[in-house]
Known about the structure:
The structure is a homodimer.
Chain A: E1 21-23, E2 26-28, E3 35-39, H1 47-60, E4 64-68, H2 75-84, E5 89-93, H3 97-105, E6 110-113, H4 121-134, E7 138-143, H5 149-152, H6 159-176, E8 182-187, H7 191-204, E9 211-212, H8 220-236, E10 242-244, H9 251-264, E11 273-276, H10 287-298, E12 306-310, H11 316-322, E13 325-329, E14 333-338, E15 341-347, H12 351-362
Parallel strand pairs in A: 3-4, 3-10, 4-5, 5-6, 6-7, 7-8, 9-10, 11-12, 12-13
Antiparallel strand pairs in A: 1-2, 13-14, 14-15
Amino acid sequence: MAAPPHPASGPRPARELTCRLDVGGVPVGGGAPVAVQSMLSLPTADTEGCLAAISELAAAGCEIIRVAVPDAASLPSFEAICASSCLPVVADIHFDHRLAIEACRRGAAKLRINPGTIGSMAKVDAVIEECGSRGIPVRIGVNAGSLHADYVDRTDLTLPESLAASAEAFVAHFHERGFDQLVLSAKAHSVRATVAAYRLLAARLPNVPLHLGVTEAGTLMQGTVKSALGIGTLLLEGIGDTFRVSLTAPPQDEVSVAWQVLAAAGLRRRGPELVSCPTCGRCQVDLERIASEVEQRLHAVSEPLTVAVMGCAVNGPGEARGADVGVACGRGKGVVFSGGKILYTVDEAMIADALLDEIERRTPSDGANVSVVS
Amino acid sequence: MAAPPHPASGPRPARELTCRLDVGGVPVGGGAPVAVQSMLSLPTADTEGCLAAISELAAAGCEIIRVAVPDAASLPSFEAICASSCLPVVADIHFDHRLAIEACRRGAAKLRINPGTIGSMAKVDAVIEECGSRGIPVRIGVNAGSLHADYVDRTDLTLPESLAASAEAFVAHFHERGFDQLVLSAKAHSVRATVAAYRLLAARLPNVPLHLGVTEAGTLMQGTVKSALGIGTLLLEGIGDTFRVSLTAPPQDEVSVAWQVLAAAGLRRRGPELVSCPTCGRCQVDLERIASEVEQRLHAVSEPLTVAVMGCAVNGPGEARGADVGVACGRGKGVVFSGGKILYTVDEAMIADALLDEIERRTPSDGANVSVVS
């Protein structure tokens, strides 16, 4: 098997300097693997639907799940979800601190609040007391769309500065009350503003784990581009302990894109990576079809292999040789490589079968369904 | 209309320091707008198909198109394409320097060669002479999959160092012959390696315009994640004068993703930006459906407006107020905003219509079909 393709280098990343938290058994911060989060789009009242979605998301690689608790009527079903969930459940609370306190009592592994929407710092203090006594961590999540009133009209500050300053003030408030089980987020829908805000937080509060995200990033494609750029840029810089890709799309897509961002940033891998060329007038097979078929069939493969599907003689042999398993195509045929060596030539129609056969030969059938690098 | 959401700040970007080239009328480098490229996947023999694809890609925002010229039989149809193309055509040449020379004579606006695949530097010199006499710029494109033989076994260099050193050596060769109409690319399928290689090039050859790309990035979603992260990270740093998103998918997708990357990086915008939340248990409308409908209908809008489609009262009013036009939804209804002001409340079924009505009211019907910020 090929070595991880992206060896870390340079100074010690910021994420190794943050405190380590325990979110219902999942470590966050202090150099722990960057954890993948998502959020349910169903109301808690659909308890069975929520639990089924959590199982499906967990199977896709989600590690922490967030659930909105918008009102007191949601509390019993929230409690039932926490009791049966296979993932730690984060309660997302706004406007009413009593919901936050009740969510703690009913099984939340973490709270996410924006103290700016809670009404008063005295009410926030009641939440701090409850979480402190139960050892429940809190994410302070500030957001450009709900910036605290103290910062909305601060024309002397840029948006990133306002987001960071607001988050810092809340952290100071929690710290003064002896509470340090904190995660911070500072999201905007502008990628530049988001990246700048997190850089400020990483510099000013180096011990506080950061939850990354570009908020309201939009539908599948635009949201993927904005999230990959905003979250990925920070991850490449060593910033960020956990994150959520926010898409106006099913949460399964959020988790899938999240793992692709982790792989692209060279941090963690889940399953194979496909190296495939964009095709051009030089290509003499239907490469898009072959690559799509291989990609589909790779979903059943759990090993972090690199698989190259290449259309011609320009970069094909080099990439196929460098991959764990690969093919470099010519006119209606493909030369199959494994472990850097040429094996044989097959007709176009057999290329996907041949690659999957070779992958199977290289993969120990140990029944593991998740493989992660680093 | 809102101001561009991502004002540039910090030191002067690297792309302002590069030489300015003219690629068939499209300026590249020297601070020109970062140009969007794509590449045809059809053989030149399908001349009509190629010309139709070029027109379609141009309408989608492609500014420079690349065409593979794999053999002498392709030259007459390549010439016909150059003669009728609405975009400057770049000839992509490997292995045979005579094809490069002929492509110049037949209308190429630029050449893309990897001198490492041309066979000998004497053959490269013949290409340099032809391009020099005709004033045709050349992209030197080195690629991890076809690294020059001098660097393949250089275990003392990392891959980014090898890519950069190989590119530098080629640039020196061209410069010694008095040729400086160069663009450089150094692509790998690893995002980290690609970013590192381009940073080295920007530092070592600050005057040479850079063509960015993550090569063989894979199919639509993985390729989009890797391209957004690799290309976008460099663009955010001020590096990169032109780029291509390489996807194992139709070139139309490459162009669409390219513009989304430019918008996310805050550099250029084409049409509206949709700010839409990921929905959660708090949302009491079918926001995914509304956002999809609005997104579809925004394709007909050319102005660089920001449109917010938000599901609840947490960030909804803030984002809807901050957008040019927006909606903050509640139970089965939406409050419509325009220019920061609340206009009226409509039923869920009428939200998309209301937003599009307000967008039309704000948009001068000047018939322009491309709007670009910066």
